[in-house]
Design goal:
Blueprint: E1 9-11, H1 12-17, H2 19-29, E2 31-36, E3 39-45, H3 47-70, H4 80-86
Parallel strand pairs: 1-2
Antiparallel strand pairs: 2-3
Amino acid sequence: MIVPTKTNTSTVTDMRTDAIGLLNQVSKTGFQYIFQRSNPKAVLMSMSMFQSLLERLEDEEDEARAREVEFEPKGNGASLEEVAKLYHVKL
């Protein structure tokens, strides 16, 4: 976990009074913790950091699903020719 510091924290008041400045800070740091009455309430992050997190999450989910499928019972399978015939595809 990244520790809140003076450079990566803002308040709800900062959001109200200087939203553009807050967005500029997010561009520099990648994210900002938002506090309200000294309690952490939210994290504001850049789109690039958000996309990166989503991609990592998707990769983790794909890997977990692949591990599940690995142990599922396998059927007898079908040859390429059988599948092509079933779907009317010429090889």
